[in-house]
Specification:
Radius of gyration: 20 Å
Structural class: alpha/beta
Shape: globular
Strand content: 15-25%
Distance between the termini: 46 Å
Oligomer: single chain
Order of helices and strands: EHEHEHEEEHEHEEHEEHEEHEHHHH
Length: about 300
Amino acid sequence: MGKSKVLVVGGTGYLGKRIVLASLKQGHETYVLQRPEIGLNIEKLQLLLSFKKKGAHLVEASFSNHQSLVDAVKRVDVVICAISGVHFRSNNILLQLKLVDAIKEAGNVKRFLPSEFGIDPATMENALEPGRVTFDEKMTVRKAIEAANINFTYVSANCFAGYFVGNLSQPGSLTPPKENILLFGGGNVKAIFLDEDDVASYTIKTIDDPRTLNKTVYLRPPENVQSQRELVEIWEKLTGRELNKHIVTEEEFLQLIKGKDYAQQVGMGHFYHIFYDGCLTNFEVQEDEEASKLYPEVEYTRIAEYLKRYL
């Protein structure tokens, strides 16, 4: 059986562009949705044209035109959506309901991977307001997919390294602190950190794998399951300099959230569940649900290697 044809929706985004490249690299005929709403965004257009140069097909369609979406998905076997779900950029999760309708009408799509790629929303029924909106919206999309009898794979990719490793998990920054570091609750709760390129590689691996059909796949590469304190220690070893550590108690962090705007409250709520509740690692995952066990051939990036770019 040949490799599936893939349509990537949100292919110019932070993760989406990596998924397009991973799909091409792994030998899939790859289509990328080109929305007319791109307007005069020259950077997005040039990125799309670079995909075309590498062998991808550009497909014009819009979420405001149902038939265009139906026509687009009819061309492929697998649809992967990577539109943004983070409130400090743009949150478009519920737009996927239109994609679900198009896939249902087209009737040919063998598998749909919606925009997940973070904390598993099915484990977050008790999440804090207002951050729980992200999980509630993702569950709304899941319910629509399953009600439409569309085959799926959900990818839980935990913490993107660009947002959680380079800054040693400091909210409001993307680079490592020079002198002082905040440790949440002592910094001993285990989290899971993934290079975004590895997220894309694992995602594409799942799409033709019968073992991952109608399942959630968790990305838990064992050497990247680390606490915040361990993350800081790796950085200190690389730099040869020790940071001044300040413990932020649970009560202090909850008070910090209250003073922020809505988008920041959403993001910091997720921080709270990761570094105080341990929501990424407080449940067991079977070997046939964990990506590094399913695909040992993927040479994932270790934290120390990732951090070297910041030296």
